[in-house]
Amino acid sequence: MTLYLDASALVAAQVATPARVVVLAAMDADPRWCTSALSLTEALAMVDRLLEEPVVRQDLEDQLRLLWDRLWVIPLDQRCLDRAADLAREQPVRLADALHLAAADRLPRPVQFVTLDPAHIPVALSLGFDVVSS
Q1: Cβ contacts of 107-113, under 8 Å, gap ≥ 24
Q2: Residue 85 to residue 52: CA distance in whole angstroms
Q3: Tens digit of pLDDT for each residue in 92-130?
Q4: Distance (Å, rounded) from C-alpha 87 to C-alpha 74?
Q5: Among candidates 20, 15, 27, 21, which has minimal Cα distance to 60?
Q6: What domains can be seen in the chain, in order of their start residue?
Q7: What is the reported pTM?
């Protein structure tokens, strides 16, 4: 199986919350971790919304970048962008969500899609992914 981590899952893997246990368990069960090229940018943008102290923000950013180095990154090339456009037309998702789903859709099945974003779940299920969430 292949594990796809969206930006919410990347952040959850690094922050002490109940969701962290779920994400880390999925990561422990599968050595192939993938994400889209969008995920780091999106995860870094979440840092300022989650934390107020600059030192703690920097620590989380460092942890995210270290995790990033261990991931297979799916490029947002024209093929991925076209698939995201199709998904955005067909499904009730924002463009950023469609980009994640399109990236994951390029992976060989079976795929476990790890997300804490409720908007991703029904679309991921409709694409045939196993969904891991909290």
Answers
A1: 107/2, 107/4, 107/34, 107/74, 108/2, 110/1, 110/2, 111/1, 111/2, 111/3, 111/4, 112/1, 112/2, 112/3, 112/4, 112/26, 112/30, 113/4, 113/6
A2: 35
A3: 999 999 999 999 999 999 999 999 999 999 999 999 999
A4: 17
A5: 15
A6: 2-132 (3.40.50.1010)
A7: 0.95
Task: Copy the structure tokens of residue 32.
Answer: 């192939």
The position carrying tokens 């620590």 is: 59
- Which tokens sit at 103? 């990236």
CA 16 – CA 13 distance, rounded (Å): 8
Q: Strand pairing of 72-74 and 130-132?
A: unpaired
| Residue carrying structure tokens 């999106």 | 42
